[in-house]
Amino acid sequence: MTPQRLVVLISGRGSNLKALIDACERGEINGQVVGVISNRPDAGGLEFARARGIPEQVLNHRDYAGREPFDAALAGAIEAFEPDLVLLAGFMRILTPGFVERFTGRLLNIHPSLLPKYRGLDTHARALADGETEHGASVHFVTPELDGGPVIMQARVPVLADDTEASLSARAQQAEHRLYPAAAGLVCSGRIQWSEPTIRYDGAPLEAPLQLDHEVTSHAPGESS
Question: What positions does the entry give for (6R)-10-formyltetrahydrofolate binding (predicted)?
Answer without folding.
Answer: 67, 92-95, 109
